[in-house]
Amino acid sequence: MDSLASLALSTEPPKIELLNRPPYRRDEYIISRKMVKHLLGMAIYEIIIVYAIVFAGEYFYPEPEMYWRFDRPNNPYVYPGRVEDWDGTILWKKYQGVVGASRHMSNVFNVFVVMQIFNMINSRKINDELNVFEGITDNWTYIGIWMFIFGGQAVIVEFGEKALKVNKGGLHYSHWIIAIILGFTTWIVSLVLKFVPDTWCPQFGKK
Fold first, then answer.
1. What is the domain partition of the chain in residue ranges?
2. Which terminal CB of the chain, N or C, has fewer other CB atoms within 10 Å?
């Protein structure tokens, strides 16, 4: 995915506005404050989302299909996919040999990747421009690669069972809706980060 995302972003045509930007100095920081702001901000947000699903998904992440609830048929949430709990209580280990990868962890994987796919659109603009969709229809190569990545993720999750260690039943459509909604939230987070002053962030690299 990273290679395809890099390829997609590299196809962005140059804009005339680039001529208004002063050249980088020879002693410019490798990682600017603006880069740190978006990298750390989005990373913290996605870590919160993913860790919440990993460690507490069995209390709020829905499981519509009775079969995948196993010995908790009246619990409407995913069966925990962690091998063991913090106290050593066996969780997914007792089903792992029978049905393979858990639906819980397959959802964690899917949510993470879908959020990255949506964040690819944020990455089109690197100078805090508010409209990340500006000029997107001028680059059909980017759109094609983006759709290919999304389609590839769907194939992996729904049919990747043994080769890629995902749940053999694929995911319920409601799980995809949740993942896509969470993907949309990366656009909101990115928009909020653009109003955070760059001076609040450190710089890294050799000056």
1. 32-200
2. C
